[in-house]
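Customer ticket, subject: "Can you confirm the structure for Urease accessory protein UreF?"

Message body: Hello, I'm evaluating your service for our small team and ran a test protein. I'd like someone to confirm that this is what the system normally returns, since I don't have a reference to compare against.
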Amino acid sequence: MTPAQYAQLMRLSSPALPVGGFSYSQGLESAVELGIVKNEADAGQWIEETLHTVMTGCDAVIWIVLSRAWRLQDFNVIRQWNQWYYASRETAEARAETTQMGISLINLIGALQWASGNEYTLLTKLDAPCFPTVHACAVAALKLPEEAGVTALLFAWVENQVMAAIRTIPLGQTAGQRLLSALIPQLDLAVRAAQNMASQTPPAIRTLAPQYAVVAARHESQFSRLFRS
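Agent reply: Thanks for trying us out. I re-ran your input and got the following:
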């Protein structure tokens, strides 16, 4: 990649990207409330296991499928997998999260004129635009490599989870950096696995994560919350 492409990649994975990802914990806050995650070691285990199940087995695979469809301008495939992803969200908060972040990124894409007219029109016409769909569009429109794009998606998720752990357990900033140091090498395994699963026909998607689903659902009725999921 060129220096400009590296900078765009960092931009898409930055917490400063105005899509609202920092306001969601994706069930981690509930896991802390329930006593499942109590310290730095628990947080590392929770994030790593969720990375290799929920994120690698579903989100990253769907993102790669969508990325390839955007590059081929296959709008029927894009609509199909966007709908599939939305239907796979197991809680009202998860559905609200992915569409809120998706719409925010669509607005940013429009304001910065990243996408072509046809691409932007499709984005605005999706009934429930999911974040992986829109993120994959942004990566393709900026002509960033597929592997770099899915890595940015996963790293942004990992970093957000670490920041949520710092705020909810709570942990210190150095502990957060230790977590990132342990988790970043796992991205190699996650990206390779997602690429292999996405290249199968049909894509080999895994969505079975019962504890994660139950804990995330419990967050909807949690008495006091810092995060929206």
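A couple of notes from the result: The chain has one domain: 26-219. Residues 68 and 74 are 9 Å apart (CA to CA). Feel free to reply with more questions.
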